[in-house]
Amino acid sequence: MQFIINQILRFGIIELFSAFFILINAFTFFLYVIDKRRAIKNKWRISERTLIFFTIALGGIGALLGMCLARHKTKSGKFRFAVAIGLLIALIPVIHIAHGLTLGRTIRYVELEFRSENWPAELDGYRIAFMTDMHIISDEDMRAVAAELNQRSLDLLLLGGDFSMQNAHYQGTIREIAQIDATDGIFGVEGNHDNYIRLFSAKEQYGITPLDNSGTHIKDGFYLAGVQDLWNRNPNIAEAIADAYTGDFVLLLTHNPDVAMLQSTDGIDLILAGHTHSGQITFFGFPMYLLRGSITEYGTRFAYGFSYSADGAPVFTSSGIGVYYVIPRIFARPEVVIFTMYSK
To answer: Rounded distance, CA 304 to CA 317, Å?
Structure first.
């Protein structure tokens, strides 16, 4: 079984499904052609149930071609209806495949404004970029991201964890990230796929500051904190924000957003998280995979965008920028999020 899984991952899920989709439509087309020829020669026929089954089982395109080119079943209302349903069903994977091969592989840059009563007015316009779930993003793609972000006047860059530790791939990713200019530096936490000792060592080598249940004052009135990963170690929000002053704007960085439901977030003004990949492979954007409970215990609460912690702190969950090995992104686009901060 593991061999089969490895081969599927090696070939590519989109590519494998595309091949299957083409084959089933070709097979359905030939069923119609063969049945037409047998009808002409008064030979044994393919049952209507079989034709209709393959028509609605992703073979609608092949069925339509078979009906038109072989002039078969064109006058049957039952088959015209079946082909209409089959085309509708076939259109769904076509749209998803097309998205996975195009927009699903194109990194977007999301510009958001965030306003808070605690944000220092003298820091209005401060720009914070957030990247998470880098995984196997190529050095070339990360280099292009760095070039783009260097044109966007960043004050701070935050990393949400999850690099690819295999074959030291993370080192190239970190090297390219370190080329991004951020006035007040680059800070990051670990993810569940990270070996934090190796990751933190590489970050420090390139001038990136790890946050390990710790925090620091970035500016007067602005405190940044980060916690350990929920699955691998012991995140402690209270410890991370212990040095913040009363009245500070406190931004908490965590890989897994679930920690915001399990510990007090009192005194925190904004939480940034990743981990869920917006569901990775979704149905027109609906993250069905998250309903399994294997990635998050809170369903679609932290699928994407703004939500709230158990005690009301705003949580922004990004879809992340990379892919997990060769599992495609479908209606869950990779992204970098840039917050421009303002006081209310």
So the answer is: 5
Side-chain half-sphere CA neighbours of 204 within 13 A = 9
Q: DSSP class of residue 242?
A: T
Q: What's the CA gap between 83 and 105, in Å, rounded?
A: 32
Token pair recorded at residue 134? 């880098």
Angle at the Cα of 320 (from 329 to 117), degrees rounded to 5? 140
Composition of the chain by helix, strand, coil, percent to 5: 40, 20, 40
**Cα→Cα distances 166→46, 135, 263, 284, Å:** 52, 10, 32, 32
Return the structure tokens found at 183. 């006035």
User: How crowded is residue 207: how many other Cβ atoms within 10 Å of its Cβ?
Assistant: 9
277: region left, alpha or beta (phi > 0 left; psi from -120 to 50 alpha): left
Measure the CA–CA gap between 300 and 321, rounded to whole angstroms.
19
Type and span of the H or E element at 262: helix 259-262
Local structure of 212: helix, strand or coil: coil
Residue 221: HSE in the Cβ half-sphere, 13 Å Cα cutoff: 13
User: Is the CB of residue 236 less than 8 Å from the CB of residue 227?
Assistant: yes
Contacts 24+ apart (CB under 8 A), 233-237: 233/190, 233/196, 235/259, 235/263, 236/263, 237/263, 237/264, 237/265, 237/268
**Digit-coded pLDDT (tens) for 89-144:** 999 999 999 999 999 999 999 999 999 999 999 999 999 999 999 999 999 999 99
- Report the run of H or E that residue 80 belongs to, with start and end: helix 77-101
If you ran DSSP here, which 8-state letter would residue 135 be given?
B
| CB neighbour list of residue 245: distance below 8 Å, 6 or more residues apart | 223
The model's pTM: 0.91
H or E stretch at 335: strand 335-343
Phi, psi dihedral angles at 302 (to 5 degrees): -110, 35
Q: Are 213 and 239 in contact (CB under 8 A)?
A: yes
